[in-house]
Structure formats: structure tokens, C-alpha cells
Amino acid sequence: MDIVYTVAALRARLKTESSIGFVPTMGSLHAGHIDLMRIARERVGAEACVVVSIFVNRLQFGPKEDFGKYPRTLVNDCEKCRMAGVDVVFAPDESEMYPEPQGYVVEPPEIQHMLEGAVRPGHYRGVVTVVLKLFNMVQPHVAVFGKKDYQQCRVLDNMVRQFNLPVELLLAETVRVDDGLALSSRNGYLAPTEREEAPQLVAALRAIGSALHAGERDFVALETHAFGTLKARGWQPDYVAIRRQRDLLPPAPADNALVVLAAARIGATRLIDNLEVSIQAPPFF
Fold it and tell me: Which residues are identified as catalytic?
């Protein structure tokens, strides 16, 4: 496995590769990231090249967010990549990614301002800007992202389509601990009692999913109940929302491909999660 730190070294390493699978990360790697690497390898094949980038992107953090304390574990991350069969780790520093102030940015459409974007203004602008830069640097044929940030997946899918980028986006299912908690680099912030409580976030989503499958269509009532349940347990919810999978707009009663999304703090740690709910339409007679 090769570890490169500059764009020039990356391009020199990749110039003869005929097929490249790419997994962009911010490091602090866990089993969810390893699964993305596995998917990339399966898609491009054993003889192709799998690249993992490790870069904590300042542009997607707000001024009061955890950019400064976000875990940086490059040595351990590289060893995990090596064990996963990655071919190249690209680990630029900030001056390499942004050698001058990033005056040109990608401005996503209205989807960036809803849900997560409403709580974290500018977040998705920072995400898509760095991903587009990374795509230009790596020139991947396939890029793999996890569905844990469902809104991010939709934003990036739209960007790839509207800019006609020659990259196939693969969206991987969220990897969870046995008790249901979605794997996240921020889970390490949780105190022991908070870790015990953390699976209640996905439990709230699953309760909504069960109600939807049972035929409930009062979406606002379901959202409000889940929000209140989390708050009563000591959470500080930002949102619990039922949306259409395809565009994250509020659904109509006849919509069947839904997703339930939530973000909430337990203690000082903010967690996000989602659950896709696909309801079989009744037979048409």
C-alpha cells in the first residue's frame, strides 16, 4: 500500500491505473468505513486500484462545531486501510487541499438548506466543494459513500448527475452495532451512560417505521411524538422528519418510498441516523 500526501504524488501514482474505486473519509476509521472499502473493491475488481482519502475538511464545519477536536488517527487509519487491502491512501494536509482561500465553491440547491442544512448552515456547501476537488484529484470511476448521512448522499448524487461527472456513485447501507447504534467516528465522544442510551435514537426511527407499515399517515403526529419521546429521555433533538426518499421533500399520503431522519444530542455528542421505509402499495383492482 502506498501513502501519498500531495496531489502531484497522487496523480503520478494513479496515472497508469485503468480503474479506480474511491472512498473519501475524514479518518478515525471504523468498521463502517472498512465496509465501504470492501464494496469499492468488489465493484472495481481485484486487479483495480482502491484509493482512500483521509482529510478533515474545515469547510464543512461550523464555527462552533468540533473541527478542533475531531479525532485524527492517521497511523492507525493507515494500518486499517492496509489490512482492508487498500492500494493508496491519500492524506493531504490543509495547505495541500487549500493552497489558497477557496473562493470558488459548489453551491447546492434548496436541499442544502433543509434538515441537517438548516441546523448547520453551509455544511453541504463545504461537503460538495471538497468532494468535487477530491474527484478531480483522484479521477475515480466508482466512489462509495455510506447512507448514514442520507441527505449528503442525495446532495452528492445530484451533483454528480448535474455536472455529468464520469463517476459511479455507490451508496452503502449503514453499519450498526448489535444494539442498533449506527457506527460513527463521533461515538467515541459518548460517556458510558450516554452510550447505553444512544440506541434509543434508532429505536425512535424504527417505531415510526412500524407505524408507517401499519398504515399510519399522520406524518406530523408521528414526528412530534418521536421528538417528544427523545426529549423526555434527556435528548436535545434538532429534528425528526419523515420525507420522500427521492428528494427529501415532505411526503403526500400516497407516497410509499419514505425515509425517516433524525438528529439529536445526547450530552455533548450529536448523532444523526435514518431509516428507509418502503411501503408496498396495495394491489390495484
Answer: 33
